[in-house]
Amino acid sequence: MSPRHLTKVLSALISLLLPVFLYSDSNIVASISIKGNITVSSTRISLMLRTKPQGLFDEQLWKRDIQSLMETGYFSSVKYEIKETEKGLDITLFVEENPQVEGIKFTGAKVFNKAELEKIVEIKKGDYCNDALIEKAIARLKQKYEEKGIYFTEISAKTQPVTNNRVIVTFTIHEGTGKLYVGIINFSGNHAFNSSMLRKKMKIKQRKMPFIRGTFKPEILDQDIKRLEDFYHNNGYPDCSIDRRISIENKMIVIDIVVKEGEKFYFGKTEFSGNLIFDVNKIKKLVEYREGDVYSQMKFEKTLLNIRRMYSDSGYIRPEVIPVPEISDSKINFSFTINPGPKVYVNEINIRGNTVTKDKVIRREMAIYPGDEFSGEKLRKSFNNLSDLQFFDEIEINPEPTEDEKLVNIDVRVKDRERTGMFTIGAGYSSLEKGVGFIGIQQRNFDISDPPLFRGAGQNMNLEAMIGGVTKHFILSFTEPYLFDKPISFGPDIFITDRSWDEYAEKHNGFDIRIGRRWENFSIGCKIMTDEIKLSDIHIPEFQSQAGTNRVNSLTTTFGFQNLDRRIMPKDGDQLQLSFEYAPSFLGSDLEYLKSTVENDYYKSFGKFVFHSKTYAGSVSHLGSTKEVPLYERFFGGGIGTVRGYKERELGPRSVDGRHYLGGKSIFAQNFELLYPLSGENEILWLVVFYDAGNVWEKDFDFGDLKYGAGVGLRVKVPILPVPIQLDYGWAVNPEPYQGKGQLHIGFTMGF
Predict the structure, then answer these.
(1) Which of 106, 204, 694, 715 could form a disulfide with 669 if both were Cys (CB 3.0 to 4.6 A apart)?
(2) pLDDT beneath 70, residues of the chain
(3) pTM, entire model
(4) Which among 513, 458, 461, 455 has a CA at the least distance from the CA of 487?
(5) What is the CATH number of domain 100-174?
(6) How many C-beta atoms surround the C-beta of residue 66 within 10 A?
(7) How many CB atoms lie within 10 A of CB 208?
(8) In CATH, 266-339 is 3.10.20.310
(9) Spatial CB neighbours of 728, under 8 Å, sequence gap ≥ 6
(10) How many helices (H) and strands (E) does the chain have?
(11) What kind and span of H or E run contains 10?
(12) Contact, 323 vs 334, CB < 8 A?
């Protein structure tokens, strides 16, 4: 045989045998057996494992499986044994369960009764007992005692074994000192700022008046000392240190605060050296201060962060930014030496901790991929994407070094939220609907292909019914956000809507099919809808001829752009949405029209203030044989979202008899808002000052005929609600004689 023919034969044999070697029985999981479990069923444990019989064995995946089992809290030990057999790998899993709680006892408690204590510790009969469970219970107890004003409480716990691997947990409580109140706060050593100003910086207050509680809390005092030091450090005194002495006089706390101010400094010159990579002028733009400004530790640290972040966002994961200070005539000159290090790339992305949500659901929300240049910005984007899903209680994303200094692994660790499905029953109020009642069933992490649990694929299934003063609404919807594992959303809706306005009644029965494509900040969507609409009880003489039933088949195209820092109550960024609804006769529509709208929001933060501008405009026109735009497609203005000095649906043309508002074919509204948080760092309560302009017209836009409104309001951000509670009072600036001069607008929803 010639060498040429021999080479061909060997190549053929290799091509035939290679799959055999790659997928040999030695790499196949033949069986997984579980031993040692008593109360946790083998089936339940198997469901927690992503390694499955008859699948290929992946050592890294198996290690993550073991870690996931330990993280459940069910087991004190998880070990395994792997044997090679003719059929593949036989894996034996040896588990040792944590004991289950049989009962709970408390000794030494006087402030709380047993029922209250059981509620505080959140430990129930049947829970798996481990150190973490006990530590959390002790922490909750101490917190409750301190909330009662009782400090220095000592709490310990021990377990007593009983039958069947169960224990009784006994908490021993030595209650501390009762409520203490602050009599006086003294300052010494403060020269730059007077004592009255410094007291205002503190959350602990003197109990000088009956309505000032003055409760002493050690942890709040610690925070106050840190707050005072930060105040000095950010106002020219970087060397300032503050100490405190506590004494008791006449059953009242006396706090003596000793201030060592040090010398006042100003910013001097700032220079950069080293392997800069970027143009020095670009780096200088990241400096938060100017020469001659009073020294501020916060501005200095923000400058460091800005520089490191710029390098990190460009692939230099571990840049060295070394500031060298030089003091000259009360000025601090800084020389920053920069060594960016090597440019780093992503090797692989490892996901762990998810026992319900599928890996692919997490991976598709990552803004960074294997092979990409490392980017801190993309890691932050990935975190926000995962957080917006609301599938997880905990999310951590960290770069992990590898043996190659130019490669990192991205470690994504999550903890699945116990419930991503919701049964909601609730009520709300709005100025338009008045009282609203609703009931709904929703699963945000649905999986239509995985009965009986139907969880883990990131799909959305929603069934909702609402009854309000005007609207009765029912909808059943399903959304697949990643069709064919691409960022393509798809889903149908079935709906029934009944609205009873003062001017007319409308009833809708129909369904639609949606499909859309998303990019990083841009999206496009299409919706095909068929809707049987019945108009009745028309009290407007001009539109009584529209009474009856029509079928409307329409195509809606939507273009969207979004670049917001967060979904609820954004502080920075903007979003834009363009929508076009076309109802032509060739789609079988009885009525023909074209409706277009544009909506833009812009947010910009200035310190604690947030500026918000919203622009909304719309136009609708009838087409073909349709002689007039149907009532339900006309625009109505006034109220929340348009001009808040006027009632809902109060703007625009009126009927001949002057009794009804007709709506219009054109609408424009411009809102300007300035928001300020009233509740400190949690930003739950916001004060709003606003100015609105807009109107509704029968035909074309007429910007010489705008209605204006101004007012104040409140926003209450409740974590469990998708939108904040809104309370606005607007004054009409230029109302017509038949319009009021002010209007209160309320919008909130509460569910249970």
Answers:
(1) 694
(2) 1-26, 178, 209-213, 422-424, 426-431, 680, 719-722, 748-752
(3) 0.63
(4) 458
(5) 3.10.20.310
(6) 16
(7) 10
(8) yes
(9) 640, 644, 688, 690, 711, 712, 713, 714, 744, 745, 746
(10) 11, 31
(11) helix 3-22
(12) yes
